[in-house]
Amino acid sequence: MWTSMEKIVKEEENRSRPNVGGQAIIEGVMMRSPWRVSIAVRTTGGSIVTDVKDQLPLSKKNRFLALPVIRGVVNLIDSLLIGMKALSLSATLVLEGQDEKLSPFDMTLAILLAIGLFVGLFVALPAFLTSLLDRFIKSVILYNLVEGFFRVGIFLIYLYVISLMKDIRRIFEYHGAEHKTIFAFENGDELNLENVRKYTTRHPRCGTNWLLIVMIISIFVFSFLGRPGMVMRIVSRIILIPLVAGLAYEMIRLLSRYQDKKVASLLAYPGLMLQKLTTREPDDSQLEVAFTALKGSLKEEGIHVEK
Predict the structure, then answer these.
(1) What pLDDT, on the 0 to 100 scale, is given for residue 88?
(2) Residues 229-248: pLDDT tens digits?
(3) pLDDT-based confidence at residue 303 (cuts at 50, 70, 90)
(4) Left (φ > 0), alpha (ψ -120 to 50) or beta: where does 226 sit?
(5) Residue 152 to residues 140, 160, 213, 259: CA-CA distances in angstroms?
(6) Which segments of the chain does DSSP mark as H helices, in order?
(7) Helices 140-163, 207-223: inter-axial angle, 10-degree rounding
(8) pLDDT class for 7, splitting at 50, 70, 90?
(9) What is the pLDDT of residue 146?
(10) Which residues are CB-contacts of 170 (< 8 A; sequence separation ≥ 6)?
(11) pLDDT > 90: percent of the chain
(12) CA 224 to each of CA 117, 146, 210, 217, 240: distance values in angstroms, whole numbers, following the listed order
């Protein structure tokens, strides 16, 4: 009886814990709590350096921005900007200040290139490949399913190819460390090597899951547009990306909230399996960096926080 009560109390405590997300960066991890952003990296000299700042998510600053679906779009933009800054800063910290940070122009250019790559690979290319089958497919639903098949296929090939790169594999190891650390925190464990090691590298709230869900939801959303010409097809899909991203965000939240339910587990399964490509088993030094970053986001261990 007491064991059951202790279990219930622990589950209640875990549910009251804040949502924490993260991102693997160059030789480190960025963690974000509802109050602050923390970056921890392993320098070339072997030490761990941190950079912690108080920073509320945009969706916390305005009620309208916190509305369902809209908050997904806002969080996507917010995460993209913070992620780019974290990557720039990590490069500087790893080299212990020997390198320069990305300028605003460089950062803007990098974001535009990333958006261009996304649109080119996952919007324009699937639309073009599907257009080659125009004469063979009469059904609008089937047509959009085929386009969705191409989109998911290109996405899987892209992930597989970059996973073969040495530098990317290193980042994927930090990605695994990030997930293990968040799992330990969500289960109420003290953040140390013994506790963090035991968890899986695959987490249901991972951005990889979100991207896969974006691909799947886009099939249904784009089906309502019929079969426009090539140019309108590409333009309409670009315009609807925010809606698709917002819906995918809500789906991720729902799956995470009910991850112990069988239906939610089945729906989340493909995304979790996909993380076999985007995460790798980290070593202890990488785990130390990850939970240092998480502690910083929670303002633990006296880590200095800049306003």
Answers:
(1) 80
(2) 888 888 998 899 889 989 98
(3) very low
(4) left
(5) 18, 12, 10, 24
(6) 2-15, 70-94, 104-119, 125-131, 140-163, 166-186, 193-197, 207-223, 230-257, 262-278, 284-297
(7) 160
(8) very low
(9) 93
(10) 27
(11) 26
(12) 25, 15, 22, 12, 11
The owner of tokens 């599907």 is 130
Dihedral sign (CA 237, 209, 162, 23): positive
Hey, what amino acid is at 200? T
Q: Percentage of the chain with pLDDT > 70?
A: 87
Q: How far apart are CA 162 and CA 166, in angstroms?
A: 9
Per the structure block, which two tokens stand in for 174? Answer: 């930090």
Rounded CA separation 21/10 (Å): 21
Output the CA torsion 83→89→90→92 (10° steps): 160
**Long-range pairs, 235-243, Cβ under 8 A, ≥24:** 237/123, 237/127, 238/119, 238/123, 241/123, 242/73, 243/69
Indicate the pTM of the whole model: 0.83
Instruction: Give the Cα separation of 162 and 159 in Å (integer).
Output: 5
Average pLDDT over the chain reads: 82
According to DSSP, residue 302 is labeled: T
Query: Could you say which DSSP state residue 64 is in?
Result: G
Q: What is the CA angle 291-294-296, rounded to 5? A: 110
- Which one-letter amino acid corresponds to residue 212? L
Q: Residue 14 has which token pair?
A: 């875990």
Q: How confident is the model at residue 96 (pLDDT cuts 50, 70, 90)?
A: low
- Scan for tokens 């009910």, then name that residue: 258
Q: Are 256 and 182 in contact (CB under 8 A)?
A: no
Residues 184, 186, 187: CA angle, nearest 5 degrees: 65
User: Which amino acid is it at 85?
Assistant: K
Confirm if 21 and 32 have CB atoms less than 8 A apart: yes
